[in-house]
Amino acid sequence: MYTVKPELRMIVEDCYPHIRELNPAQRSAIESGYLESDENYIIAIPTASGKTLLGLLAALKTILDGGRVVYTVPLISIQNEKIKEFKKLEKHGIKVGKDPKTSDLAVMVFESFDTLTRFSWNLLREVDLLIVDEFHMIGEYSRGPVIESAVTRARQLNPSMRIVALSATLSNMDEIAGWLDARVVEHDYRPVPLHREVLDTEMFGARDKNQVVLKILEKSIEEESQTLAFVSTRRFTESLASYLAENIRGRIPEDMKERFRTVAESLLEVPGAAGSRPTSTCMKLAECAASGIAFHHAGLFNRQREIIEDEFRKGNILMITATPSLMYGVNLPSRTVVIRDYTRWTGRGQQRIPVFDYEQMSGRAGRPQYDDAGYSYLIAKSHAEALELEEYYVNGEVERTSSRVLENRDAFYRLIIVQVASGLSRNPDELIEFFKGTFYGYQLMENPYMNSFGMDNLQYELEGALDFLVKNRILYPGPDGFAATEFGMLIANSNYSVETAIKLNQLASEMDELNIYRLIYEITRTPDMPLISFKATKSRDPVRERLMDHGLFVMDIGNEEATAAALIEWINERTEHEIENAFNVYAASTRRVAYEASRLVKFFGRICEIMGVYGYSGQLEVLSARLYYGVGEDLIPLVVGVRGLGRRRARKIIETFGDDLRYVRKEDLKRIDGIGEKLAEAVKRYAERC
Ligand SMILES: Nc1ncnc2c1ncn2[C@@H]1O[C@H](COP(=O)(O)OP(=O)(O)OP(=O)(O)O)[C@@H](O)[C@H]1O
Ligand SMILES: [Mg+2]
Known about the structure:
The termini are far apart. A 7-stranded parallel sheet has the order 3-4-2-5-6-1-7, with helices on both faces. A 6-stranded parallel sheet has the order 8-15-12-9-11-10, sandwiched between helices. The longest helix is centred in the last third of the chain and has 21 residues, at 451-471. Strand 5, helix 7 (144-157) and strand 6 (162-167) form a beta-alpha-beta unit. It has 32 helices and 17 strands. The chain is globular. By secondary structure, it is α/β, with parallel strands linked by helices. The protein binds adenosine-5'-triphosphate and magnesium ion. Adenosine-5'-triphosphate binds next to helix 3. Magnesium ion binds at residues 51-52, 133, 329.
């Protein structure tokens, strides 16, 4: 730490007592003049090598000089983790939060930062340092273009802003550095050595891959260490966890059993707090957790995922089986990482995961504050396959990171709309200028084979896109070039995809009268809806029948239809437990999904207004609220009027006392399960207001 200025050092020593000195990777950054420089930087050092601290040091330096910093991350869970970590700085007078308007150090997800670059230019111009964590995400199909366009716009609008990009997995460094006009720090030091190996079933005389995972688990019980296992689907996280739990149940040391049981109980309590009986997924989860194994995927209650991560950190879970969503940036005490599946389903069938994902998953093993060694095991079927996988993954290079803005059509459209709507580009020439500033443009111009051909191609694509956007009444050619219609402005101001907006617009113009069930169904078919998925290949007839009850006749029943059916049940006050039983779906995520649907209903309402389709606004408000709260129409005033009451207690009140609550006594209200003094008072206040 001697290389860091005393005032910075003091803050870091106070907030991070476990950090006594910088490691060699961090030192190489500092010694290159990183903290004194105004230049952009790319810090490309291995997983777990402490990139966050390097980002933070630059942030502190900027803030102490009176500046403002934005630190962007890919996921809300990482945003929360970082805010929790950085909040320790507040006692040194540094404001930490999510909003750069009110924070010296704002941690934002990529999409929120993108919003800032679209319309909040005054605030954007006050940002002195932008840190982009997990910078390799720029090469990801759906999220990459968001970062790319936000960074490009931010650089054009605020040229003096410094950019620091952090990543463990970048290969074509020259290109990226060239684009960002950045200095590069590369180092291969990893504070915790990571042993990477491919195991196979033949080595162990095992029947299948699961048996190999079981062997690894047995070893980690002996060593008292913890393991994180990656598989490709939600269903596999569950089947692997159940298999392991069954096989080690009888062999868990007595002292561990009690701790596991407590975790299982707290996982089982979660649905109750949300007003549902435990779903069968919850029961399965609790059963596995009682043997020290937990599965982790998007079909669980949010709170359950938090509990799993917290308890794993406390050592009360032996192994988490997870989907790749836990792959980036998280710090967990997993000495061992197992990658059981190295293929996954994509639109083009079964595909190998990139080396890139292999590196990120492996990187979750052996994190400095928890372990002194890390082990990553990829599992192959046969010995021959293991040899091949070793060559491909363990000795392989991560893929090049490339721009996706042209490949991802919707992102390309969005980019054009935003440029035009914000007045930054009004004609094809100005748009071409903008694209030259993107990573896409840079890759195009630097590539000698692509250069002239590429430019022609871009021009051609651009013209096609402009035609498409004019045809869909998103842009129109005006006297001073292109401009955005009101519909185009709405899209530019939202984070929704162009496809969603066009679909909902078509629906608004086709409908003779508002059919809320049809609307719910169409919303589930937009790309912006998270979906509730089927659990197994059981009968899908109940979903078909429920949709039919509401006049929706559908032949192929998939997750979109399951989601629509679940949402219909949800607004009729069914619990997650009931929804799961009725349709055999992962119903624990219903609330999250309904929240998104509720926002999309509002978006649809705005589209109707703009298109001159009047008369629905009242009904749409009601539907949006029903989705948000999961209630029938009659319950809305009460659940909106009494914060924290929730739909179950609200229904009980109406059932018991009717809907005129003016003469109900507090004591009587308190007889209802779950209503205490405070809530009873709030209900009384509500009744008096009515
Ligand atoms: N010099 C240091 N000495 C001891 N611990 C450190 C040091 N620097 C960072 N750490 C700790 O190491 C852990 C991993 O750091 P961090 O999360 O920043 O890794 P990372 O480089 O961002 O990895 P990833 O690529 O996986 O996101 C953190 O708990 C951090 O506090
Ligand atoms: Mg990190």
